Amino acid sequence: MSEPAPVLAITGAASGIGAATVQLALESGYRVAALDKKTPNFTFQENLLQLACDVTDTASLEQALDCIEERWPAGLEALVHCAGIYRTSAAETLDLALWQEVHDINVTGSYVAASVLGRPLLRRGKGSIVLLSSIAFALGDGTEPGAAYAASKGAVVSLGRQLAAEWGPRGVRTNVVAPGVIDTPMTTIVNSQEGLGKVLENIPLQRLGAADEVAHACLFLAGRKSSYVNGVVLPVDGGQSII
C-alpha cells in the first residue's frame, strides 16, 4: 500500500507567498490546509481544506487543528507560516499602536502558530516548521523605513532558532525563510519608480523576486529532502543581502 500524501498547513494562504505555496504544494502532491483570516469559514475540495483562522488567536488555531485532524486523521507533517503584515513609518514618528499591530501579527502570530500547529508534530516525534522572516531583519532601509517590521522579523529569526534548538532533539525541525523584495500585493516599493530603481541597484540579479520562488524554498525546508536541515535562515533575495 502506498504511503498517504503528507499533510501541510499553510498560514497567510489567501494571497502572495502563502497562496503561491498552497498552489505549489498541491502540485507537489501534498494535502493542504490553507489557513487565512480572509478565507471562507470552511471549504473542502479533494486535497485542499480552506479554513478561516486568526494566527494571533490560540482558540482559532486550535479549532483549525481540530478540523484538520478530523479531515485527515494521520495529522500534520509540516507547517509553513506565511501570515504577516508590512508597515512602514519613520522611527521618530512611529505610532505605538502600529508597532503593536506589527508585532502582534508577525511575532506573536508566528509563536502561536508554531506552538499550536506544532503540537501534533511533537507528539509524533517528527515534522517540520518553516517561519517567514525577511532580509529586513539584517538590513536597514532608508527608502522605506520600517523599524517595527524589521524588529518583528528579527524576532521571528530568533524564535525559529530557539525552536530548532528546543524541538530538534524531539524530531521537529524549524527553519526560517528570509525573502527579499518579492512582487506581491504587500510590496509597496513598486509604487515608486525612484524607490524601485534604488532597490534594484542593490540586487545583483537586477529584478524583484516572484512569490513562487519563495514557495519553492519553503517547500524544500518543509519537506523530507531537507531532513538534516535545522535552524537555518535561508535568504531568497537575488543576492541583496550580500551587498
TrEMBL record:
Pfam families to which the protein is assigned, alphabetical: adh_short_C2
UniProt signal peptide: none
Name used for this protein in its record: SDR family oxidoreductase
SUPFAM superfamilies on file: NAD(P)-binding Rossmann-fold domains (SSF51735)
InterPro entries: NAD(P)-bd_dom_sf (IPR036291), Sc_DH/Rdtase_CS (IPR020904), SDR_fam (IPR002347)
Family as reported in the entry's similarity comment: Belongs to the short-chain dehydrogenases/reductases (SDR) family.
Alphabetical list of PROSITE patterns matching this protein: ADH_SHORT (PS00061)
Membrane spanning stretches: none
